[in-house]
């Protein structure tokens, strides 16, 4: 249903209906911003990327391929712009393309439980560490990790967005999770050395939803 509505709006926009294009922006701007913000370090970067993405959409609307969903096309543009920005600012990250492998298990949110007085602080600290570990990944790993773990997109759609095969996406997820886990454990060991004692609460497997950015107002 959403795909049909989007395609109808695209057709109307192609015919010069400005209100239809505005409706496309309104329908998907918030989620596009979230995709961008999960990839780049600042709100301002996400704002610029989404603005640039919709400008490119507008300029290329006549060539839209109705075989695909509008969001797949939009998120592909957003993701490519974010990766370009990351590569310009930080060309070196953890991991490099390599051999194929099978997908590993996905990280799951923590079980709900009664929050201790110190738990909010631990959660904030853990979220910061999760973000730092994600930011340490090379862009091609970071993009699929964000689209899968934070945005919840299926591998097939991620493959269309990043312009890779389904197998490649599954390998990048597998490898990205391993690199993330290695970086997480390295940081836990560093914290233990600096503090002189282990922190079992902080060392627990992180919850991916803890790093979702605040949505724009």
Question: Mind sketching the topology for me?
Answer:
Elements: H1 2-14, H2 18-39, H3 43-60, H4 70-89, H5 119-135, H6 139-150, H7 155-162, H8 166-195, H9 200-203
Question: How many strand elements?
Answer: 0
Shape: elongated
| Continuous helix count | 9
Considering DSSP H and I runs of 4 or more, what fraction of the residues is helical?
55-70%
Which percent band covers the strand fraction?
A: under 5%
Cα-atom radius of gyration: 19 Å
Low-confidence stretches: 96-118, 212-217
User: Distance between termini?
Assistant: 27 Å
What class do helices, strands and sheet pairing give? mainly alpha
Largest β-sheet summary: none
Helix and strand element order? HHHHHHHHH
- The mean pLDDT is 79
List keywords for this structure.
mainly alpha, 66% helix, disordered C terminus
Overall description:
This protein has nine helices and no strands. The protein is an all-alpha fold and 217 residues long. α3 crosses α4, α5 crosses α8 and α7 crosses α8.
Give a quick rundown of the structure.
By secondary structure, the chain is mostly helical.
